[in-house]
Amino acid sequence: MPNKTVLFTPAQFVGAVNPSIGLAEVLRDTGRYHCVFAVNNDWKSRLESIGFEVRLIGQPVDRDATTNRMGSAESNYKEIEASGLIENITPLENAIRSNDWAVNLGLKEIIETDPLVKAIIEDLKPDVIISDLLIQLPSIYTSGIPWIFSCSANPLYLNYGYLDNILPPAFLGLPTNSGTEVKEKYRQQVWERSREKWYKYRDQLVSMGCPKLEEFLIWTPSPYANIYMTPKELDYTDIRPLPDTFHGFDNFKRTENEDTFEIPESLKNRSGKLIYLSLGSIGSGNA
């Protein structure tokens, strides 16, 4: 019998749930861990079909649960589309809207979802919590249970928990070698437009037992471990070293099966490097 219980609390998005499944599969298959997911009803059937226990956040709804990731992806895309993040807008406006979206999501989650997650934690009493939420939940931070912050987003999102002022602000498309004045100019413009909502978010977290965030930040790093997913070739650690509690992985493996890729004959023996570009579920939906 597994002797450790791991609770996964991913954001209810394809891009967070699927990497969490990958991590859970690896842990489960060692035979030493019992992996449980705290998710809404959309993910219940899918997770149970691959052998995971589910603790529902809130009550089941009166409809058939989503049983495939394409249905969930479509739902996620519609939510992002409604936020205005994928409209034809300037990079600066996109950065401002992205900040507002993350803060609004955080406020909604800590007010509506946090009490439900707290009840699950108190009932399950897991040994470890792995959280891929983009934001911070007081129920996890104040639980007294070792927890891991998992980031399946772009590694620039780490700057919302560990501000370094070396890399340019996310979402703007600025080169990494941008001058300090340029980076600070845009950072301040984003901050001026977003800070009123951010203060409300920070104060709500503090009132629920979380530490006071520094300006610009949205989450507090775990003192135990913070993991993120990006190929080393695309990481920024050569420019911005991270603390020892941060660990990067090329991917969060989904299964033990290894697919092979054969380079098409028309591309073999050419000079240079072959680059595969994926727009992801959101980007391709907007293409």
Provide an overview of this structure:
The chain has 287 residues and is α/β, with parallel strands linked by helices. It has one domain (4-274): Glycogen Phosphorylase B (Rossmann fold), CATH 3.40.50.2000. The chain is 38% helix and 13% strand. It contains 7 helices and 7 strands; from the N terminus they run βαβαβααβαβαββα. It has helices spanning 14-29, 44-49, 69-83, 91-124, 138-141, 180-207, 280-285, and strands spanning 4-10, 33-39, 53-56, 128-132, 147-151, 225-229, 246-249. It has a 7-stranded parallel β-sheet with strand order 3-2-1-4-5-6-7, sandwiched between helices. It is globular, with a radius of gyration of 20 Å. The termini are far apart. 30% of the residues are buried. Residues 60-71 have low confidence and may be disordered. This is Glycosyltransferase.
Short description:
This protein is an alpha/beta fold.
Q: Provide a count of the helices.
A: 7
Q: What number of domains?
A: 1
Q: Describe the largest sheet.
A: 7 strands, parallel
C-alpha Rg (nearest Å): 20 Å
Low-confidence stretches: 60-71
Briefly, what CATH class? Alpha Beta
Name of the CATH architecture: 3-Layer(aba) Sandwich
Residue-averaged pLDDT: 84
Spatial strand arrangement across the major sheet: 3-2-1-4-5-6-7
Q: What's the CATH H-level superfamily name?
A: Glycogen Phosphorylase B
CATH topology: Rossmann fold
Query: Quaternary status of these chains?
Result: single chain
| Helix content, binned percent | 25-40%
Query: H/E element string?
Result: EHEHEHHEHEHEEH
| Overall outline | globular
Instruction: Write down how many β-strands occur, each being a DSSP E stretch of 2 or more residues.
Output: 7
Strand residues, percent:
5-15%
Organism: Oppiella nova
Protein name: Glycosyltransferase
